[in-house]
Amino acid sequence: MKYKFSHISLSTSSEDKRVLPIATQVHEILTKAGIKVSYDKNLSKLENLTKIKYKSSNYIIKNSELLIAIGGDGTMLNCSRRYGSRGIPILGINLGKVGFLTDIAPNEITSRLLEVIKGEFIKDKRFFLEASLQKKNESFIALNEVVIHSGAIAQLIEFDLFIDDNFVYRQKADGLIVNSPSGSTAYSLSGGGPIVHPNLDVITLLPMFPHRLNTSPLVVSGESKITIKMTEKKNKSVLSMDSHNSLSLRKGDVITISKGKSSLILIHPQSHDFFEACRNKLGWSSSLQNR
Question: Tell me: domain 7-120+270-290, CATH 3.40.50.10330, correct?
C-alpha cells in the first residue's frame, strides 16, 4: 500500500511517563508501514529504540512531511511555533487534561494513525498572532494568545487601545488578552471570553478584571491592527506570548498585534468535530436523549 507520508518526525515537550511507551508504539506503527521516522532532541529518553539518531530542528523542518506532537496543548504550542510556523503539518496525540489542539487519545493511536498515513484526515488551517514591541527590533508569534498583564496579584495597569489606528478606550484592568480563534478555548475561556469557531477570521480582545462594569469582550476582524500604549507612570507590566516569551513593559511602550505571516496546518482524523470536542472537553450536554 502507498501511504500519504514517507517521512514523519516525533516531538514532545512533556515529561509525562506515558511519552516513552507511546513514542515506541508510534515508532513501530510507522516503521512497519515503511515510513522513515525522525526524532527531535526532546525525545532523547527513548533509549530502548535502537540505532536512533536524534535530529536537529533544521533537519526536521527540511525533511519531514508531518510532525507528531506527543503531549498536551503545551506541547502542541511549542511544536507549532517551532515547526508548524515553518510549514510542517502537525498531528497531536493528547496526554493533557483538555487538549483542544491535540485530539488523538492514547487508546486510539493505532487505528487513528493508520487512517492518517493512508490519507484519511482533515486539514485545519490556523493563523498565528504576531506581536512586536516598538523599542525592540524583533517580533514574536503566538498561536493562542498575546497577553499584557500586571505580573502581580490584584494590581491594575493602565493602557490605551487602538484598532486600525482608531482610538477605542483607555482601560484600567489586571491586563488584556488578545487571542486568535485557537486561543478562545484556552486562557480567554477561563476569563469568560467567547468560544470562537476556528474557521472564523477574527481576533478577540478580553480585558482581565477591568475597573469598569460596562466593559465587554471585543471581537474584531482578523485583518485588524491592534495597538496598545502603556500609559501609567508606575506601570510595571509584562507582555507574554502563549505564556512562553515574556517582556517587561514600561510607560510609553507601544505594542502592535496583528495576524502573523505564517499559518499552522493541524491534521485531524476524519471523525474530528469541533462541537463534539466542546461537548466532551467542556462538559456540554452530550446527547439529545438528555432532553
Answer: yes
Q: Express each pLDDT in 84-141 by its tens digit.
A: 999 999 999 999 777 788 889 999 999 999 999 999 999 999 999 999 998 787 899 9
Looking at domain 128-261, its CATH class is mainly beta
Low-confidence ranges of the chain (pLDDT < 70): 45-51, 234-235, 286-291
> Where in the chain are the domains?
7-120+270-290, 128-261
Q: What is the residue-averaged pLDDT of the chain?
A: 90
Q: Alpha carbon of 217 to those of 52, 123, 137, 210: distances in Å?
A: 49, 29, 30, 11
Residues annotated catalytic, as ranges: 73
Could you write out the three-class secondary structure of 172-205?
EECEEEEECHHHHHCHHHHCCCCCCCCCCCEEEE
Q: What is the pTM of this model?
A: 0.91
- Residue 102: all three cell numbers together: 491535540
Contact indicator for 66, 79 with CB cutoff of 8 Å: no
**Residue found by looking up cell 495576524 in the block:** 259
